[in-house]
Amino acid sequence: MVMNTTAARVLPEPLSAIAGDISRLAALDVDRIPTAALGDGMAAMRRDIDALEAQFSRWLLLFDRARGFETEGSNSAVSWLRGVCRLSGGAAAERVQVARELAQLPDTKASFDSGEIGYQHAAVIARSAAELGVDVG
Questions:
Q1: Rounded CA separation 77/64 (Å)
Q2: What is the pTM of this model?
Q3: 43: Cβ contacts below 8 Å, ≥ 6 apart
């Protein structure tokens, strides 16, 4: 059983600001946005989502190493992600694998952190490195 005790906790300010920005974005009347601007906006959102995924991976690695999931009543980081973050089992396992593998792939991590590559690229590289047992950077 997963205990969600996050409601009583205060989030770091940047996360609160992001939530406010998302609320303002959701309130936009997208029917009035020109098509080209929709495309530009979606590309910008994707870059921001990937940047958040890079930070999520950084935080997840520390949470996993500290076994933070145990204090929340879970027996693994995957289980915790499934219950608390509402990820599917496959998505949760992938996030944990990517976080762990990126710790061994400094060049890939740096490219992901800088926005040079997105989450999906980082995940493919991490998965390939794990399967092949080689350092692909």
A1: 6
A2: 0.86
A3: none
